[in-house]
Amino acid sequence: MTLATALLLAVAALIIGFAKTAIGGLASISIAIFAFVMPTRESTGAILLLLIIGDLVAVRHYWGDADLGLLKRLIPAVIPGLALGAVFLALVDDTMLRRSIGILLLVMAALQLVLLWRAPDTTRIASSHAAAIGTGVASGFATMTANAAGAVMTLYLVAQGVEKRRFLGTGALFFFGVNLCKVPFSVGLGLMGLGTLRNTALLAPLVLLGAWIGLRTVRRLSQARFDHAVLAATVLSALVLVLR
């Protein structure tokens, strides 16, 4: 591993921790970094373990703010989405997977952009049973193939008008459960080897540091301006993957 690669992975690990306790949309940058500097299949397993570490911190601090009613509507549809994602991973090659991740991130960024001009009846639509099922399936597929379900959940929760701490608590419990469910799929697909475990052990302290920084800055974040910056970074990261 070159010094440049190590530095990029270190930055990605810091971002994962920060995203889990502050702004989830930032995690897409880490996904793009991992897929850019590592074999794409290996990157999905390596980043999954780091995401789970970040999830543990987020659940520890925000579990009391989770909206269990929202989670009950979403969870039943996640498993079919995970299964579809696992089938997709088994069928495509590394190049197709990398580009699919990039395209998926672009789509998720576009959906986030729609939120800036969402119609007045968005909350009514997002509250429907069909929207909950669609969000669950899309989250399962996106997280299994690219660890990129954060943007799907962001779209759903923001459209629900969820305030910041409720948003963080609901997302923390949702992704902790979903990411744990993904581990058997990832092991079965051969995405987690000894090298993955070694890299996770080396990068885990940086995830914890990023989470610590996120916890101490979330109250002072200018949400609107920061979301715009995250959206722009997501688009740039996705373009790198698609055009590489």
UniProtKB/TrEMBL annotation:
Database matches in InterPro entries: TM_pro_TauE-like, TSUP
Bilayer disposition of the protein: Multi-pass membrane protein
Record keywords, A-Z: Cell membrane, Membrane, Transmembrane, Transmembrane helix, Transport
Pfam families hit by this protein: TauE
The keyword Transmembrane helix is assigned to this record: yes
GO CC annotation: plasma membrane
Residues annotated as transmembrane: 6-37, 44-63, 75-92, 101-119, 131-159, 171-194, 200-218
Top-level taxon of origin: Bacteria
Localization: Cell membrane
Family (UniProt): Belongs to the 4-toluene sulfonate uptake permease (TSUP) (TC 2.A.102) family.
Name of this protein: Probable membrane transporter protein
Naturally occurring in which organism (per UniProt): Intrasporangium oryzae NRRL B-24470
